[in-house]
Amino acid sequence: MPDGLKVRMIKGPAKVVVKGACHVLGRDVSGQTVNVRAGKALPFEPGNRWCTLHARLGYGARLWWADPKQAGTSMWLSLARQISGLAIGKKTIVILVGDTDTGKSTLAIYLANMAIRHGLVPSIIDADIGQGDLAPPTAIGAAVLSKQVVDLRDVNTSVFEFVGSISPVGFEELIAKKLRSMLDRTSQLADICIVNTDGYVRNGGVQYKAMIAEELQPDAVISLGENAELFDMWHKGASWQILHARSSNQAYKSRFERLNRRLDQFLRYVGNGYFTIVNLSEVKFDYMNRLFSPSDLFQSPIKQLEPDNMTGMFVGLGSNGNVMGFGVIISVNSDNGIVHIQTNINSFDTIYLSNIRLSSDRIMEVRLT
Fold first, then answer.
1. How far apart are CA 42 and CA 60, in angstroms?
2. CB–CB of 332/307 below 8 Å?
3. How confident is the model at residue 151 (pLDDT cuts 50, 70, 90)?
4. What DSSP designation does 273 have?
5. If you compute the radius of gyration of the chain from its CA atoms, what whole number of angstroms results?
6. Rounded Cα distance, 95 and 99, in Å
7. How far is CA 266 from the centre of its chain?
8. Cα distance from N-terminal residue to C-terminal residue, the chain
9. What is the DSSP string of 285-310?
10. 345 pLDDT tier (thresholds 50, 70, 90)
11. Cα separation, 156 vs 152, whole angstroms
């Protein structure tokens, strides 16, 4: 981006028609129309002074000028080149860590786009089980990118792992193991794997991120923002390269926006699926990597298996050990052994249970504790 040109930030919902040379997160969008999802903020970086943007803003959208030292991607350019350089000639793993709203997801997309520009094949693993873009809440998603993108929610994800919670607290070891499995399943398809983590870095979060790094053994860890405890921890005997990145001020979301984006992800993966009727004798239940038989429904060893608690529960649906899709349990009838599930998946042998139920009108989530 030429010196003196500011970054045009646009927060959705918006439709932006670009006239002239312009990039968004390293992708050339010159002469294109870019859709910005509700609650998402994208940096439009002009290539010259003759670039103009015509934005049609929806409810709650806004636009503003930003300093390229605090928003956009120019502040990460040397870092992206360094990461792409690591991946030349060898498989490379990079983990992004940082507090909430430091720009981890934005940086993950930019690093992937720049890797593609350098002729590399990137994959992204989205480990944020509460606010992820590649999977619904309660799950981890991964995708190998064949082309540059500006929003990971536009990517078709086919590789999932199910956790069962939207908070990592109490699930730290399980998430680390699931990430290892995800990495093993995707590593052969990509030159560089970018692992995006959640913003849990306080009150045990630093140790949680260290656990992930120990499990994945990355080539580099990028610490975003000014969290001294997080950044200093990586220098204590770490076997991987430690890199620091400036946080971006483009990422802030209100609590209301976060809740709406999370609910949107739940509904996207349930869709308008038909009702699947399942006989309890044909499935088993999984919660936190523990398998339960249908007979456990009558003994209720955990709250998640109580039929009343399962009604409205968001679940993963799997076959042969792999998560194939998602659904919502409509009802469980222990008398006739029938489970009704709203889903687009018509064949599965395992129901992965969660701590989350959706209200009957699908307008809110309810945590089961």
1. 15
2. yes
3. very high
4. P
5. 21
6. 14
7. 13
8. 49
9. EEETTEEE-GGGGGT-SSGGGSHHHH
10. confident
11. 9
Q: Residue 111, SS3? A: helix
Dihedral sign of CA atoms 206, 207, 210, 212 in order: negative
- Report the b/e string of 82-100 with b at 16+ CB within 10 A: ebbebbeeeebbbbbbbbb
Name the band, by pLDDT with cuts 50, 70 and 90, for residue 2. Answer: low
Residue 335: the pLDDT is 82
**Which pLDDT score, from 0 to 100, does residue 228 have?**
54
Position 221 confidence tier, pLDDT thresholds 50, 70, 90: very high
How many C-beta atoms lie closer than 10 Å to residue 159's C-beta? 20
What is the distance between the alpha carbons of residues 331 and 223, in angstroms, rounded to a whole number? 44
pTM: 0.92
Instruction: State the Cα–Cα distance between residues 8 and 96, nearest whole angstrom.
Output: 25
- Least Cα distance to 270 among 334, 365, 336, 185 occurs for 365
